[in-house]
Specification:
Helix 8 packs across helix 12 and helix 14 crosses helix 15. The chain is about 45% helix and about 10% strand. The strands form 3 sheets. Strands 7-6-10-9-8-11 form a 6-stranded mixed sheet. A 3-stranded mixed sheet has the order 1-3-2, covered by helices on one side. The chain has 4 domains: about 60 residues, lambda repressor-like DNA-binding domains (434 Repressor (Amino-terminal Domain), Orthogonal Bundle); about 55 residues; about 170 residues, Arc Repressor Mutant, subunit A, CATH 1.10.10.2910; about 150 residues, no CATH class. With about 475 residues, the protein is α+β, with helices and mostly antiparallel strands. It contains 16 helices and 11 strands. Keywords: DNA-binding, Transcription, Transcription regulation.
């Protein structure tokens, strides 16, 4: 394979010269120079030496990472607001010869799109003061969102611990109980806790679990407390680096990181990724194989972005009937509204009308980017008879180009004949004037008002 840009990146990340790398690999400096400029392909012998010396997977040099960057750059220059166009050949040359520049171009374009999201947040507040600081939970949510919902250090540490504890998929509870007892002197008991799910008495080394928890939920609670005990120092370092001034935000981030570690422990990266690829991302089958719920599997699928071992880059969202987004994570460029009020044509909201069924949709944003979405409701019981429960819609989406890897796309037309639903980020910032579902006029656009005529489209703009 030709992997000059990746080889150069690997060398520069470790502050090595071409001569240094040549000595490590037992080849000439001129050979290294030819490899980095794609004058010669990367041979199997050199590839093996690279993986041995640097501890990276062979997939690190695979072409699919470059292909993704090419697709991202093409998306930037496909923006119809640009007057000039760039040929596919120029895009390929930019991403191959100057991958760092290409990533900056993509990042700038995403920052522009982020500004559209910020406008949506401002207008959706309807006059509320947005100069005040973000709420603590918003700070934590945005911290994970900025990292594509992937924390490599915790993910790898949890995976290693899973191996040491010999945890078996779908049968992790007994292993976690034993680990808490043998490694930390913690005793686990089942005990009614009212509306609580678990309580940990650190001084008495006693962990109480509500007997109403399902097996997967109980395992996750056990794993989250084990995370605090096993990786507490690593979690504290990440919290300190986040720079949150609010103590509530710091505590929420600590909980979020412990939960992340728990997910990586119960669903270890390589085992889970292998099962996901083998089962073609069938969430129901993955839930059964690992003994966890639909939401947990979807959330974990949105984190599979380890360098050299990528899964499908998913966006994950959880919403309630009122349209409030309580969880949102993304490894893609999908635009989420920060404060709810997203497009009612989005399949995530339609899921409430078909409880328990998995619905699919090909959705197109105003910038022309297409995504494949699946959605299903989940219900969480709160207690006994008469106690209100909680119902959410879970959405999992990826760029349409990845849809063929999902079992949910079987039998669907994904090409030019695909049935596409145009959606937006919210009516006040949506650029689609002909949408019959519009609830508000778009800001900054004058309306065509005729006292003696009416139509299907509300708030029609002036031509």
């Amino acid at each position: 394979m030709y992997a000059g840009a990746r080889l150069r990146q690997l060398r520069e990340d470790r502050s090595l010269s071409q001569s240094d790398l040549a000595r490590m690999l037992g080849i000439s400096a001129s050979y290294v120079n030819q490899l980095e400029h794609d004058g010669r392909p990367l041979s199997l012998a050199v590839l093996l030496k690279l993986t041995e010396h640097f501890g990276v997977d062979a997939e690190f040099f695979a072409a699919h990472d470059t292909a993704r960057l090419v697709a991202d750059v093409r998306e930037v220059f496909a923006d119809d607001t640009l007057d000039d166009s760039i040929s596919p050949g120029e895009v390929d040359e930019l991403t191959t010869k100057l991958p760092g520049v290409a990533r900056v171009v993509v990042a700038l374009h995403r920052r522009y799109r982020k500004s559209v999201e910020n406008i949506a947040a401002l207008t959706a507040e309807q006059g509320m003061d947005r100069t005040s600081a973000r709420q603590p939970h918003e700070q934590v949510r945005d911290w994970f969102y900025a990292r594509n919902n992937h924390v490599p250090a915790l993910d790898e540490d949890a995976e290693e611990l899973s191996v040491r504890l010999r945890l078996r998929p779908g049968e992790v509870r007994s292993g976690l109980v034993a680990a808490l007892r043998d490694r930390h002197g913690v005793r686990v008991v089942g005990e009614p806790l009212g509306t609580g799910r678990h309580e940990f008495d650190r001084r008495g080394r006693l962990l109480r679990l509500a007997p109403t928890l399902r097996p997967g939920q109980a395992a996750f609670r056990l794993a989250s407390e084990l995370a605090m005990l096993e990786a507490g120092e690593a979690i504290d370092r990440l919290v300190d680096r986040a720079g949150f001034g609010d103590e509530t935000a710091r505590r929420l981030l600590r909980i979020g990181l412990a939960n992340y570690y728990a997910g990586a422990l119960v669903l270890p990266y390589r085992v889970f990724l292998g099962a996901a690829e083998r089962l073609r991302y069938d969430v129901t089958l993955l839930s059964g194989e690992f003994g966890v719920g639909f939401e947990t599997v979807c959330h974990r699928l949105s984190t599979l972005q380890r360098r050299g071992a990528h899964g499908v880059p998913f966006s994950f969202v959880r919403v309630d009937r009122a349209g409030n987004i309580s969880k949102r994570q993304s490894a893609t460029g999908f635009h989420f509204s920060r404060v709810g009020g997203s497009c009612p044509l989005w399949i995530v909201y339609e899921a409430f009308g078909a409880p328990g069924r998995i619905l699919t949709q090909i959705a197109e944003l105003p910038d022309g980017k297409k995504y494949f979405w699946l959605a299903r409701t989940v219900t969480q019981a709160a207690g006994g008879h008469g106690d209100p429960g909680k119902t959410f819609a879970i959405g999992l989406g990826c760029e349409l180009r990845h849809a063929g890897r999902l079992v949910y796309s079987d039998g669907l037309e994904l090409g030019k004949g695909a049935a596409v639903t145009p959606i937006g980020m919210g009516c006040k910032v949506c650029e689609r004037p002909a949408c019959p579902q519009r609830a508000f006029p778009a800001i900054g656009r004058p309306l065509r008002v005729d006292e003696h005529a009416s139509g299907v489209v509300p708030y029609p703009p002036l031509a």
